[in-house]
Design goal:
The structure is a homotetramer. Chain A is α+β, with helices and mostly antiparallel strands. Chain A has a single domain (3-131), classed as Hotdog Thioesterase (Thiol Ester Dehydrase, Chain A), CATH 3.10.129.10. The first copy, chain A, has helices at residues 25-41, 45-50, 126-137; strands spanning 3-9, 57-64, 73-81, 87-96, 102-111, 113-114, 119-120. In chain A, the strands form 2 sheets. Chain A has a 5-stranded antiparallel beta sheet with strand order 1-3-4-5-2, with helices on one face. A two-stranded antiparallel sheet of chain A has the order 6-7. The radius of gyration of chain A is 16 Å and the shape is elongated. The A-B interface holds A 18, 20, 23-24, 27-28, 31, 54, 56-65, 67, 115 and B 18, 20, 23-24, 27-28, 31, 54, 56-65, 67, 115.
Chain lengths: 139, 139, 139, 139
């Protein structure tokens, strides 16, 4: 199971008039998590680009469980979901560093696209097969 | 079926390096839609506040279907989902004004909370019962 | 004097924990104002692009005078500053619709750039000369 | 001279369709810098709040010099400007980690306010005098 853990200090601009992180910012925390995962495991946007691919989101699910407040730090756990489908899927757990609880969970689904031809990949692109062989198959 | 339709001109700052609206901005479009719905039907944040309630999001689902580009306008259709549960639920359809297609669909679920006591309502608060009688029962 | 007036309803996500619009959002209001000006007078990003130009900001000045709150609407007045320099300059006045007062004033300076060659224009580009002749000289 | 240096990885969502950081995000980098400064020197929003004060921005100046791109990290240098006036002022230098150049400079001015009485301080509040004595006078 491939997992990255990153941290994001809650910013003043992320907190709304109810003194909690506005729900829309969690979507960016998910992207922060994906980017940190990509940096650790060679699967960042720029790595994917280098293979002539874009990976747009097609599905997003978020479950808000507890609040995050200013002065706290979000711990973002991003886990790769292995699947034979031509999709890139991640699970997220966002925890409060101060309280230890899970503030939010979520899942994203991305597809592989040729950005110029605007064509979707029906099968896993070779680059991704190689990546999976390297990181998952040998484990 | 209670539905509000609002419009949001795509801003330069909402478009990412792939020349399409960044996925996280759709979450704000949903909130824009809820606020426009609330203004039309007396169910805005300030109306809810006036009754001593907050309505935090507990669930968010987004399905991205087509792209929105700079120069286009998002048409946001926000539909109230009637339910006996003590929840506030909306469906969203976001359309491209230029192309006519559905770019995105989604659903949000909010709960009723006393912001000071931090207590959730297990049953529908009286304010919301009255609102439903006014807008739904008499139809 | 060329001036555009546009309106932006204050969004819940723009209000911070002090219950006022977070200062960073005014920069986007300025861009909203420029875009509305561009739409009215044929000087939008896409018009400028069509002539092979980009107009990046090089200077921004903002003076915050009064607050804007949720439930209010920002009235954005964007005024073209005529100058012989190879620059695009605007003044901004942001007013509270509810209170009538000026909440914020500001000024932006943009330069003309060939986005591919990354070259700055030292003199006014022909497209801009034509635009000024059309909108300013004949007045 | 009190100075804090912090780092912010450029996020995909911060980059616009010209493949550079959108100018409005620099305002948040400045706030990130102020928060990192506040954490280092005991002058964060929460420290200031604990003394019954808010410190709203009244002036913002930004000079954009070079671009920042995805894959780079912004180095944010935040320097306290000492002054007898009842104001809180900072200078900013934002550098590209990859290129070493200065991408942006700026300055912010904040005032001291009693958030409940909505009164401005004409003279330096005692809390701030003590802070200056601790961090500046003894140096």
């Amino acid at each position: 199971m491939l997992k990255n853990t990153s941290h994001s200090i809650i910013k003043f601009s992320e907190v709304d008039s109810l003194h909690v992180v506005w729900h829309g910012h969690y979507v960016r925390y998910f992207e922060d998590g994906r980017e940190a995962f990509g940096k650790q495991f060679g699967l960042g946007y720029l790595d994917v680009y280098a293979h002539g691919l874009a990976v747009p989101l097609v599905d997003l699910q978020v479950s808000f469980k507890r609040i995050l407040e200013y002065g706290d730090t979000a711990i973002i756990e991003t886990t790769f979901i292995d699947s034979p489908a031509a999709k890139l899927m991640f699970n997220y757990h966002i925890l409060s560093e101060k309280h230890g609880y899970v503030a939010c969970t979520g899942k994203t689904t991305q597809v592989f696209m040729n950005p110029h031809k605007k064509e979707l990949f029906i099968t896993m692109p070779p680059f991704m097969e190689d990546w999976k062989t390297k990181w998952l198959k040998n484990k």
